[in-house]
Design brief:
3 copies of one chain form a homotrimer. Chain A is an alpha/beta fold. Chain A has helices spanning about 1-10, 20-30, 40-50, 65-80, 95-105, 115-120, 140-155, 185, 195-205, 210-230, 235-250, 250-255, and strands at about 10-15, 35-40, 55-60, 85, 110-115, 155-160, 165-170, 175-180, 260-265, 265-270. In chain A, about 50% of the residues lie in helices and about 20% in strands. Chain A has a 10-stranded mixed sheet with strand order 2-1-3-4-5-6-7-8-9-10, with helices on both faces.
Chain lengths: ~280, ~280, ~280
């Protein structure tokens, strides 16, 4: 199983990410069992991309100097054949962020792009009623269509997170759903948890193809979050328990907590459930 | 009540703040019920200031590039009529910080300036026995006078935090006092909690005038801190519980924990107490 | 005892450190009882170095602008006679980091250099099987020799951290060992704890000579970590309890948890043990 392969291989995951979540995502990766490195200096990117197992690029707290580092990193990733996951934080909220996300997608080989509904919509030029980074509008009925179109447009795996997550490789669409309803509420009260999902996908990219890595990252996060929210319903304590559960979570927990559906043109076929 | 209005409106609070506390203040705002965004790139400031409800400027870990972003942000705030709270972290400790705080106050329309005793003193050119950012000397007997003078000098609401907080709009002075004595001790053992106060004031500025927003921010913080310290007397656990209580705190908690006095020339009139 | 002197004096510890751990190390220093300040702007370094009690330089998330600040800070430290502890995070992983560490060591008077096995090896040009920042290979059998050679080469106190820590002033070598075996495992699952050790050494440098300060920093960290791990075996909860125990830890705890051996050419003489 992918989770065990991450833990035995301890992949090196190189993050160029925002100031708000650096500590959060490094701790999430360590708790899971991966080896994070945070580095942005252009002078050392080649040394790092050469040895890393995957790269996580996150455009929160962006400025021109960090964007330059990100562009260089994704070009090196293409050269060295390393998988990249892009988290387009704030795309749609500002022109700088939207353009940066598109530039990164168009000038490299991104394996996975993962965002909330507003962010992923912005990649197609569809700016909705976006309000801030954390409070994007989530529209389930169009999210399924959206991931398919983004995946095809950019030749990547695309994921939209929300109460239910949707993932597509451009052909198929999967939905990842957690049993507990309450977990989404508390997830929205802690900063950087979307960024944690991208980082976890980065860890799985070292041991899986992009579609499976994305589903595994989403499922692992939601399982750990669900378990944590049962022990601690308030945001501070929940946040602490989330790291505990990223460390503790096993394959059986995922099977108990998560349902993954393949959504076909004709209907919905459940592919992984505890029922 | 202001707290309920913050929670129902979920105001977008734009923070240009220091590296140490970005995660802390984002989590505090989310726990309270606001929507934080952290961004500093000059290229996207106009897009953000246009839609934000308020702006928090905090000069910790300052350098010239961040100061430039802050100056641009407060000028845009003036243009778009958005309220600004300034946290002059480290004013008085270095000439760079003192000058930066004064430049921000003099070149824009700051609604609220909030600092500890040493920081706020430095705004009047009165550098006291300042030792570091966290360990400023607190002198209650002159703090009341200080907030009045700073409020008048800069045409703003001024607040000095300490075991007892003082707030003035240049005419009146209010004292915000928490019942429990022990809470100040543990507050001093966690970084960024002064910055959290400024961020909470930022959230209230979206729904209240500057004087009321400042009192509400101080009272909310102290209430949550007091409740947290009763559950967890040590700094790591207290810090976690503080987010829990920013989420849990309600109007009744504030009334139980906090006393707000209006201090008049003739004496002290209690305006809000549980007695 | 050193610990009580730190708590009564509350030394000002100036940190130029990486984005990932700024919050972590500031909170660790506050919990212990020191006064941290985080600042990197060249314009304010002289104001700060003049009044600080010690300086912590940490080259994680390095870039050329931060390196320039670090070089200026260590030169000012030499001028003002302030002790410096260097944490060469990632030395050996990239040429930029290795060169930066060597430049800092060779152009100033560093009191203590502390790293993991891979990082300290890199200072002698011995790049081993280095994998990332967190997962350096630890080789106890050569670590003792390594600290002695690094201490002599750079005229500093050198420390290598691992399941057992080794410290040398170039003449003697000490080993710092914690009773509990499990603590190393969970320490490796939280980011920035090596950086916390360097910060604690910085606090002790204000009240002790470099050799004693280094042993005290290592022993304090391991004691607090050991106590925390007994209360909380998973990384999120352990991390929280670590701050609690940095606040709670006393001299008796150190004596109970830690053994410090002086390793002589002829053998091992235990100098501090609970036996």
């Amino acid at each position: 199983m992918s989770l065990e392969r991450v833990r035995s291989r301890r992949p090196l995951v190189h993050n160029i990410t925002n100031f708000v979540v650096m500590n959060t995502t490094a701790n999430a990766l360590l708790a899971l069992g991966a080896s994070p490195i945070m580095a942005h200096a252009v002078e050392e990117l080649e040394d790092l991309v050469r040895v890393t197992d995957s790269i996580v690029v996150n455009i929160g707290t962006l400025d021109e100097r960090w964007l330059y580092s990100m562009l260089k990193a994704v070009q090196l990733a293409k050269e060295f054949g390393k998988p990249v996951v892009l988290d387009p934080v704030g795309a749609g909220a500002t022109k700088l962020r939207t353009r940066a996300a598109l530039t990164l997608l168009e000038n490299s080989k991104v394996s996975v792009v993962k965002g909330n509904f507003g962010e992923v919509s912005a990649l197609l030029g569809e700016v909705g009623r976006t309000k801030g980074v954390e409070a994007m509008v989530y529209e389930e009925r169009v999210a399924k269509d959206l991931v398919m179109r983004v995946a095809r447009r950019f030749g990547t795996v695309a994921a939209v997170t929300g109460p239910q997550d949707f993932v597509s490789d451009g052909r198929r669409v999967y939905a990842v759903k957690v049993g507990s309803e309450n977990v989404s509420r508390v997830i929205g009260r802690v900063t950087g948890l979307g960024c944690v999902v991208a980082a976890l996908i980065g860890a799985y990219l070292a041991v899986e193809d992009p579609l499976r890595a994305t589903v595994a990252g989403l499922a692992t996060f939601k399982t750990a979050a669900s378990r944590a929210s049962k022990e601690a319903p308030y945001p501070g304590s929940f946040h602490v328990k989330l790291y505990d559960w990223l460390y503790r979570v096993g394959g059986d927990d995922l099977i108990e907590e998560i349902e993954v559906f393949e959504i076909e043109p004709q209907g919905i076929a459940e592919v992984n459930s505890h029922n």
